[in-house]
Design a protein that fits this description.
alpha+beta, Extracellular Endonuclease, Chain A, about 25% helix
Length: about 300
């Protein structure tokens, strides 16, 4: 689906659902209510103090952090009909998202030829929408992408995690909500101790802290206004049947040689929801009753247990 067709599809949806609504960014896609079926059950993460632009896409909604030129979070609702099919990503390439303000928009020039080993890493994975070609095509926007280490991360253990999540949906014939996002460091290493799931992780300072045309191939060159490089990536997975969520946190680095069994390695990176909130500054499930929120933050739900 091309950009014009995508815009028309969501514009028609907005007219049918919320006629006459005034939008902050003057695009129907910027109003979360126009894709509330994707996120309503889990709510939109709260992002205190951050400049966030929301953009509705066909199968997901992104919360683009305009100061970092990267999404703080992306929510998708995975269903059996979406995750299995014959849609293909052949001949696809990422595009700038014109529904994000220019000041907060990543560009293809920021990534192209960076020479630093970073992929344009999906948050909502393309293969999550193998059942609908137009939905899969719509994942190739930079508002759904962050710089991910390619070899040993995006193309290996992160892909394994994505595949296993699709397996949960297909094997159990059930729906799940997946919230994907980034942990940014601001120049300080991160040590995780006393996590409710007993995980102990160390995340060194990433270099470079951002990518832009000026530092391609030069780790020490500074970017005036580049795309922030996450120190780690997370997925929070909510099962509406069990009304529980598990969380995974993986460093944005090569994990090659660190494991023999990918599933067991992912389970070793199981962390509590409270840890993700502390590191990201986000607050998840804000519309849940306060008692339910406290229970979810104080529980360790086993990874891939749904």
């Amino acid at each position: 689906m091309n950009v014009l067709a995508r815009s028309l599809a969501i514009a028609l949806l907005s007219l049918a659902v919320l006629p006459g609504r005034v939008l902050a960014q003057n695009h129907p896609e910027n109003d979360p209510e126009n894709c509330s079926d994707i996120w309503k059950e889990v709510g939109l993460p709260k992002t205190p103090g951050e400049d966030i632009t929301t953009v509705c896409h066909l199968g997901y909604i992104t919360g683009n952090n305009n100061s970092r030129k990267a999404p703080s979070w992306v929510i998708e609702k995975l269903t059996p009909a979406l995750v299995k099919g014959k849609a293909t990503r052949e001949n696809q390439s990422f595009s700038e998202d014109d529904k994000v303000p220019a000041k907060g928009r990543a560009t293809t020039a920021d990534y192209d030829g960076n020479g630093l080993g970073f992929d344009q890493g999906h948050n909502a994975a393309a293969a999550d929408f193998s059942g609908k070609q137009e939905f899969l095509d719509d994942t190739f926007f930079l508002s759904n992408s962050v710089p991910q280490v390619g070899v040993g991360f995006n193309r290996s253990i992160w892909r394994t995690l994505e595949t296993r999540l699709r397996g949960l949906v297909g094997d159990n014939r059930s729906e799940i909500y997946v919230i994907t996002g980034s942990i940014f460091q601001d120049g300080k290493p991160i040590k995780i101790r006393n996590d409710i799931c007993r995980s102990e992780l160390e995340i060194p300072v990433v270099k470079p802290a951002s990518i832009c045309p000026e530092n391609h191939g030069k780790k020490n060159a500074q970017c005036e206004s580049g795309v922030a490089v996450p120190a780690a990536m997370f997925k929070v997975v909510y099962n509406p049947k069990t009304k529980s969520a598990f969380s995974v946190l993986l460093q944005n680095e090569s994990h090659t040689g660190n494991y023999k069994n990918g599933v067991e390695y992912i389970r070793a990176h199981n962390v509590g929801l409270a840890t993700i909130e502390d590191l990201s500054g986000l607050k998840f499930f804000p519309d849940f009753p306060l008692r339910k929120q406290r229970v979810m933050r104080s529980a360790c739900v086993e990874v891939l247990s749904h």
